[in-house]
Amino acid sequence: MNIEVVKSKIHKVSVTEANLQYVGSITIDETLMKAANIIENEKVQIVNINNGERLETYVIKGKAGSGEICLNGPAARKVQVGDVVIIIAYASLEFEEAKSFKPWLVFPDTKTNQLIN
After folding, report:
1. pTM here?
2. What share of the chain is helix, strand, coil (3-state, %, to 5)?
3. Which active-site residues does the annotation give?
C-alpha cells in the first residue's frame, strides 16, 4: 500500500508577483527550490494564509537569490502581491517507508523570502 506524505515544504513566503498573462504555474526562487528539494515542473500545492485559497500547479525555476514567488496564469487570481503562502510537494511512498521518511522543510524570512541561516 502506498500513501501520500509531505515531501517538501516552503513555509510562509510572500508573493512577489501575480502574472495573469502567463500560461500557468508558480515561479520559485531557485535557492528555495534547492533547499526544499523541489524540482522544476514538479506538482505543488499552494496554500494562501491570507485568504484560505488552496490550489495545485507546477513549478518554474526563478532566479537564484531573487526571493521571487510569482503565481502565473489563472492562479494569479487566487493571490495578491504580499500574501503569505505555503508551498507543499507530496510523494507517494510505501507505508513502512513513509513511517521513517523525513521531509525537507524550509522556513525562509517571510519579508525577504531569503533563507535564514
Report:
1. 0.96
2. 15, 45, 40
3. 25, 58
